[in-house]
Amino acid sequence: MQATPYRDERLPRYTSYPTAPHFHAEVDGPSYAKWLKTLAAGTTTSLYLHVPFCRSMCWYCGCHTTVALRNGPIIDYLAALRGEIALVAEHLSSPVDVRHIHFGGGTPTILEPADFVALVGLLRRHFTVHPDAEIAVEIDPRRLEPPMAAALAAAGVNRASLGVQSFDPAVQKAINRIQSVEQTAAVVAGLREAGIGAISFDLIYGLPQQTLQSCLDTVEQCLAMPPDRFSIFGYAHVPEFKKRQRRIATEDLPGGPARHEQAEAMARSLAAAGYVRIGLDHFARPDDAMARALPEGRLRRNFQGYTTDPCEALIGFGASAIGHLPQGYVQNEVVTGRYAERIAESVLPTARGYRLSAEDRLRAELIERVMCDLAVDIDAVCARHPVDPQVLTPALRALDQLASEGVVDFDGSRVLLPENARLFVRKVASVFDAHVEQSPRRYSRAV
């Protein structure tokens, strides 16, 4: 396989299609209001709540978040978040069936325990939350105390995603995130004792000062806990868009071949421990719902990465939050002050979005199946969409080229990535992307 040049190519992660850089202001609050009103009764729906605050800043972070050393800004933001929940509920003409709730950040557990419980209670009052709904929360293990673990359980949280990144002290110093193994293990034990048994770990490769051995050591230390799932992401160094990343010296970052070696070594270590490799960057125990969904073709991809969430709609709450309704995507105001102002005006805080065309839907399905299954039957997907297949002619030519390089097996319709090309799945997905060449500097490296 001659895929080495693609390691340094900048490509989207394809958690949506089109990706967020292509959203625009023509989709606004009134557009979103109309879309909400058309959601049919019983539409299976996910809710995402964004809490854009942390107590300290990790320099690698690419999320929309700021440091809050006192609780005042958090309390003010929480009031706006409650207002948005009520406002969205008012725009729904029929009850929807909520199957998934995800709290992201930032650090969602920066909220006071009683406030978190009350917030979930507010969601239950405004929406019909299914008794078996998955309620997940992202956690910084450095900031979780026993009262908050108990509050999460009381609120019905049944999945916790813990940021680990790396246990290497040199790496932790370089990214401004000091987090011991013992501290993390204590949080895991506390969550399990509270009744939250489904636990995921997030790791990162390609960080400053990171070595192959430190990656393997981190995996081994994690396996002593051990979680149900792992997500292993490549560090996306985009200091032109995230000023905090300018504190990371480019010369301290592993190069393309080293990043590839780190990712593959971590994957082999997890496979040896019995985890199923899923898509580009996820791993799950064989009895996990994600591992069961993979061979059945039920794996999906959304803004949290790979998921078993089959919901027809995603409603996002909070500054910068993105929603996905049948008509397209919407994104809230990114700046928390402007977001709160819009809520105070009783106006949906939608800043931009994207209305999907029939061709977008075709391309989105092709990309999702490639990202999830590492394979797709183009003819079968085209048969489900009222679009002239000729729009894919450039993609077919690109696939022929990738096949000649050994990146894919391609017979004119069926695309299959061999195992040794798994890390190039974003490159393969990008052949179906009609927008990818328009803003490549916004994206992270393919591997």
Compact overview of the structure:
The protein is an alpha/beta fold and 447 residues long.
Number of helices: 14
Classify the helix fraction into a percent range: 25-40%
Radius of gyration, CA atoms, in whole angstroms: 21 Å
End-to-end Cα distance, whole Å, is 15 Å
What percent of residues are in strands?
A: 15-25%
Give the strand order, joined by hyphens, for the main sheet: 10-11-9-8-7-6-5-2-14
Structural class designation: alpha/beta
* Main beta-sheet strand count, sense and barrel state: 9 strands, mixed
Number of β-strand runs: 21
Shape type: globular
Taking pLDDT < 50 over at least 5 consecutive residues as the criterion, the unreliable ranges are none
Which whole number gives the mean pLDDT?
Answer: 95
Could you characterize what this model shows?
The chain has 447 residues and is of the alpha/beta class. The protein contains 14 helices and 21 strands. The protein has helices at residues 29-37, 72-91, 113-126, 146-155, 169-175, 181-194, 212-223, 256-272, 289-293, 336-344, 358-373, 378-382, 393-404, 425-430; strands at 10-11, 44-51, 53-54, 66-67, 97-105, 128-139, 159-165, 198-205, 229-234, 276-278, 282-284, 300-302, 305-307, 313-317, 322-325, 328-332, 350-355, 375-377, 409-410, 414-416, 444-445. The strands form six sheets. A nine-stranded mixed β-sheet has the order 10-11-9-8-7-6-5-2-14. Strands 15-16-17 form a three-stranded antiparallel β-sheet, covered by helices on one side. A three-stranded antiparallel β-sheet has the order 18-20-19. Helix 2 (72-91) runs parallel beside helix 3 (113-126) and helix 4 (146-155) packs parallel to helix 6 (181-194). It is globular. 45% of the residues are buried. The mean pLDDT is 95.
